[in-house]
């Protein structure tokens, strides 16, 4: 419903000047919110709270700005201390207060939540009178109600129980007593108990809910009749989701929200696209009929994203439905990252302008670990977004798995949300008005407390997992009941007809009008903005249509470089830096004036610094990024006296060009998904995720497979995310050696990502700068070194940074004469320095070592140019530290062979040989002696064969 704006109500002549009328209305609201008009009740519900001012003391101006939602608790309302209990009545008074608390804690276990009435509900002793020493003889006795929001300080026990039963044991089951914050609990209690969880809605609201249900059901019936048996993962049984989404978005608009980002899996997705976001039905029908045009490989229609603008009472709101794969809950942290990027762009540090909505399946919500990870992130500095409204389409079955027996070990699928003390509202989807009320409550809670909240929409799945399934084969009793179950829309229409709110003809008109709109291919979202405000959109136009280029001008003036560097080595007066860190700062001062060679930490930091200086935001996260896992970065300094922090790079940041660096919580999957979502929504920034060790990215493989490497070709979604993955065989065993280079190379195609192994400080400097300065936006997977961070040979000069560029191939750099070279060793990464050392020690002068710094897109032209000067080559060898079945050998050898073949070396006996570890099931040896033995052998094989 599009409710009138409160500004208009205040401005109307018959309200604006009538203070007494407004105060009387507020007093009525405090006693019973159902006694005031819906617009005012909605307004009072959303106003900030105060606990210091009595309602009668409020002047007109203060009421307008700051209404009070809680009157002071009177002393007589407080439970008496146990020591003061002396009479039988006093004992029962305490028991009554215990009973009230029991309903708040366990009333949901008695609630009528299942539309199918199949949910097994255990007896709850706490809710029985006898459990509390009370009986039916006490029902007429008047007791103090404590802080029960019933509109009176006292009530008969029968009235108290009636209030509690209606509030907590009907179609809304509230779980909130696990919350430790008293203010939050009292806020929820007041909202629930004051209207007994069932506020009275006007006929206009009821008709609006019915119209949305007609739309939800109408689309599913239309698709079923037109495309029978075609997969669509329909919403039948859960149609209440559509009025829920409508009200959630409209209410968010009243809080001046500018954008809403939605994540959901496939169940009901087409319905949300058409009936919430306003996708054209004719476009959907084209997809069903195979007439849609695609510029890339595309994806199935129930994974597609969409965006639109709708009008709300608070103004225009941009809606974005995130693209998602079938990996269910993985889209949730992606949405959070996109929301955080939008909030950062709007300089919103609280979370008022952009709201995330995550729509889940019940089995996935309980079963997928990324749900826990996303909740864990929700209040951390790096990942908070001001609260997410979680909506669970609870079909009460997971594909074919019976939920209570096999799909989880807890009573509800939502129990994981308790870990962050999120309130949970279970609601019977066949009571649309209860769904509507819970939706309003959820939105208000989110904006009041800036925390996550969960709506468990308990419904059913009228058909199987998809429209081709026969579900009765595995759930015979459930589907026997479903076959005779009237739809939510029909049940609600019958209720309104019985109440006289609408007649049968009016109901039929709604059905016919919606079907006609579908037949004509018309948009069916009445609030859709046909000419949206484009300033709300993320502008990707500067990054579209660019062909792949390996080289780009990343130079910077030497004086500018030094000026920026000098700012980073200034430490505030009185800030006591740890001794080793102080040495790093002093060395960087020497590097800035050219008195020391530049190491990795300096070059990397200067890449971030110069990008900030040039107006590019930078965001870096990972489990140890402030210091750096190998203590090379020290971007965050810690005062040894008071533990305060100082971040030198922030000196180069501005309000419009922020710098953010956060040590993340111990997650890979949710964190990497978050950063992917952030990077897809902030094209002008350098967004970096660093794994503590490269193999830690294993825990986020679904993000890499389904989003990072394939998102552009499935959904046309550009992304410039940078992954830094420490890699290199240092004898640290199988888990801390390999970043699994082979996995990324196997995923490479169609110029989808970049895979680089920089071996010098200048290379990492220019690689990171290229990632932002070049308008092309492709994910960058950088396998970064460990031992090279302080290797005496892995150094650069100031001139290398100021005047150089990223080199995809680095030719032989020592005084090897090309005409003498009989053997060329091609390699990538840290093994180059091992080969170089061995060649020097053995005084070999007929072997050239050439580094391939970018393995994908493979730089065939650059490699060809490097090899051309060697005319007398007899053998070309690829050398790697990884086992033969891993690393770059299988994925990249055809590129190298093609280059070697094209040069037609006359004396070459074979196109390409291999030097490296033998094939192995494990990435690396766990015993140091074995590691050394293998390393020596591969060096020998490479240099002498």
From TrEMBL:
One of its GO terms (molecular function) is thiamine pyrophosphate binding. Its cofactor is thiamine diphosphate. Signal peptide: none annotated. One of its GO terms (biological process) is glycolytic process. Its EC number is 1.2.4.2. Transmembrane segments: none annotated. The keyword Magnesium does not apply. Residues 598-791 form the Transketolase-like pyrimidine-binding domain. It catalyses: N(6)-[(R)-lipoyl]-L-lysyl-[protein] + 2-oxoglutarate + H(+) = N(6)-[(R)-S(8)-succinyldihydrolipoyl]-L-lysyl-[protein] + CO2. GO terms for cellular component: cytosol; oxoglutarate dehydrogenase complex. It is an enzyme of class 1 (oxidoreductase). It comes from the Bacteria. InterPro entries: 2-oxogl_dehyd_N, 2oxoglutarate_DH_E1, DH_E1, KGD_C_sf, ODO-1/KGD_C, THDP-binding, Transketolase-like_Pyr-bd. Keywords: Glycolysis, Oxidoreductase, Thiamine pyrophosphate. CDD domains: TPP_E1_OGDC_like. The keyword Transmembrane helix does not apply. Homodimer. Part of the 2-oxoglutarate dehydrogenase (OGDH) complex composed of E1 (2-oxoglutarate dehydrogenase), E2 (dihydrolipoamide succinyltransferase) and E3 (dihydrolipoamide dehydrogenase); the complex contains multiple copies of the three enzymatic components (E1, E2 and E3). E1 component of the 2-oxoglutarate dehydrogenase (OGDH) complex which catalyzes the decarboxylation of 2-oxoglutarate, the first step in the conversion of 2-oxoglutarate to succinyl-CoA and CO(2). Belongs to the alpha-ketoglutarate dehydrogenase family. This is 2-oxoglutarate dehydrogenase E1 component. The lineage of its organism: Bacteria, Pseudomonadati, Pseudomonadota, Gammaproteobacteria, Oceanospirillales.
């Amino acid at each position: 419903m599009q409710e009138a704006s409160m500004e208009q109500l205040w401005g109307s002549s018959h309200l604006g000047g009538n203070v007494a009328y407004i105060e009387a209305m507020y007093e009525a609201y405090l006693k019973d919110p159902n006694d005031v008009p819906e617009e005012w009740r909605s307004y009072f519900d959303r106003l900030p709270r105060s606990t210091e001012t009595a309602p009668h003391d409020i002047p007109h101006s203060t009421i307008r700005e700051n209404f009070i939602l809680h009157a002071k608790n009177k002393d007589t309302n407080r439970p008496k201390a146990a020591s003061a209990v002396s009479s039988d009545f006093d004992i029962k008074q305490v028991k009554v207060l215990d009973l009230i608390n029991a309903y708040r804690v366990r009333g949901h276990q008695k609630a009528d939540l299942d539309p199918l009435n199949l949910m097994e509900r255990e007896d709850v002793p706490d809710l029985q009178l006898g459990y509390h020493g009370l009986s039916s003889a006490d029902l007429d006795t008047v007791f103090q109600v404590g802080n029960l929001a019933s509109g009176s300080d006292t009530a008969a026990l029968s009235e108290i129980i009636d209030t509690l039963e209606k509030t907590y044991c009907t179609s809304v089951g509230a779980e909130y007593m696990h919350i430790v914050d008293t203010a939050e609990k009292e806020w929820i209690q007041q909202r629930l108990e004051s209207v007994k969880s069932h506020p009275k809605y006007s006929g206009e609201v009821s008709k609006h809910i019915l119209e949305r249900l007609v739309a939800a059901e109408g689309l599913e019936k239309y698709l079923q009749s037109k495309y029978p048996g075609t997969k669509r993962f329909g919403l039948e049984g859960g149609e209440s989701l559509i009025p829920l989404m409508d009200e959630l978005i409209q209410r968010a608009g009243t809080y001046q929200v500018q954008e809403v980002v939605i994540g959901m899996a496939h169940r009901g997705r087409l319905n949300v696209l058409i009936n919430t976001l306003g996708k054209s039905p004719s476009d959907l029908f084209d997809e069903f009929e195979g007439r849609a045009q695609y510029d890339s490989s595309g994806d199935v229609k129930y994974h597609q994203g969409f965006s639109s603008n709708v009008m709300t009472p608070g103004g225009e709101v941009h809606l974005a439905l995130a693209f998602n794969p079938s990996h269910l809950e993985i889209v949730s942290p992606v949405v959070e990252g996109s929301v955080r990027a939008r909030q950062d762009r709007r300089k919103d540090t609280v979370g008022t302008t952009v709201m995330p909505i995550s729509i889940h399946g019940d089995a996935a919500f309980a079963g997928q670990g990324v749900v826990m990870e996303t909740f864990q992130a929700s209040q951390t500095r790096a990942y908070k977004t001001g609260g997410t409204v979680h909506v669970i389409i609870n079909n009460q079955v997971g594909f074919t798995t019976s939920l209570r027996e096999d799909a989880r070990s807890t009573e509800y699928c939502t129990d994981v949300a308790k870990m962050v003390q999120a309130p949970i509202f279970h609601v019977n989807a066949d009571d649309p008005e209860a769904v509507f009320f819970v939706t309003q409550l959820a939105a208000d809670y989110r904006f009041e407390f800036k925390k996550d909240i969960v709506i468990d929409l308990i419904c059913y799945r009228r058909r199987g997992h998809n429209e081709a399934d026969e579900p009765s084969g595995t759930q015979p009793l459930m589907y026997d009941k479903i076959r005779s179950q009237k739809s939510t829309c029909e049940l609600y229409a019958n209720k309104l007809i019985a109440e006289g709110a609408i007649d049968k003809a009016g109901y039929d008109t709604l059905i016919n009008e919606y079907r006609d709109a579908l037949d004509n291919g018309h948009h069916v979202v009445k609030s859709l903005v046909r000419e949206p405000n484009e300033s709300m959109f993320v502008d990707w136009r500067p990054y579209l249509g660019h062909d792949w280029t390996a080289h780009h001008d990343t130079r910077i003036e030497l004086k500018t470089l030094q000026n920026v560097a000098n700012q980073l080595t200034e430490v505030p007066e009185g800030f006591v830096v740890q001794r080793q860190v102080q040495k790093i700062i002093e060395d960087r001062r020497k590097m800035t004036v050219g008195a020391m060679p530049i190491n990795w930490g300096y070059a990397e930091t200067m890449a971030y610094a110069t990008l900030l200086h040039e107006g590019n935001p930078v965001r870096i996260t990972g489990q140890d990024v402030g210091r750096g896992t190998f203590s090379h970065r020290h971007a965050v300094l810690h005062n040894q006296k008071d533990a305060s922090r100082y971040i030198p790079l922030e000196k180069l940041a501005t309000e419009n060009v922020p710098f953010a660096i956060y040590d993340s919580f111990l997650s890979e999957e949710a964190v990497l998904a978050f950063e992917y979502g952030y990077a897809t929504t902030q094209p002008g920034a350098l967004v970096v995720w660093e794994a503590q060790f490269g193999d830690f990215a294993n825990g986020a493989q679904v993000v890499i497979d389904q989003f990072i490497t394939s998102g552009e070709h499935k959904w046309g979604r550009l992304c410039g995310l940078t992954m830094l993955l420490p890699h290199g065989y240092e004898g640290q065993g199988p888990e801390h050696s390999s970043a699994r280079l082979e996995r990324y190379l196997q995923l490479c195609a169609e110029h989808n990502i970049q895979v680089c192994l920089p071996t010098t400080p200048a290379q990492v400097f220019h690689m990171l700068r290229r990632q932002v300065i070049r308008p092309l936006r492709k994910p960058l997977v950088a396998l970064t070194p460990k031992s090279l961070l302080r290797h005496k040979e892995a150094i650069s000069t100031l001139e290398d940074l100021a005047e150089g560029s990223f080199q995809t191939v680095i030719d032989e750099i020592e005084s090897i004469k090309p005409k003498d070279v009989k053997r060329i060793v091609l390699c990538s990464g840290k093994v180059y320095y091992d080969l170089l050392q061995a060649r020097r020690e053995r005084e070999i002068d007929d072997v050239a070592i050439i580094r391939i710094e970018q393995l994908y897109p493979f730089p065939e032209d650059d490699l060809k140019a490097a090899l051309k000067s060697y005319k007398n080559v007899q053998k070309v060898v690829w050398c790697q530290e990884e086992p033969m079945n891993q690393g770059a050998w299988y994925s990249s050898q055809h590129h190298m062979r093609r280059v070697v073949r094209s040069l037609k070396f006359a004396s070459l006996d074979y196109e390409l040989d291999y030097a490296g570890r033998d094939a192995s099931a494990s990435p690396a040896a766990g015993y140091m002696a074995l590691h050394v033995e293998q390393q020596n052998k591969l060096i020998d094989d490479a240099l002498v064969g």
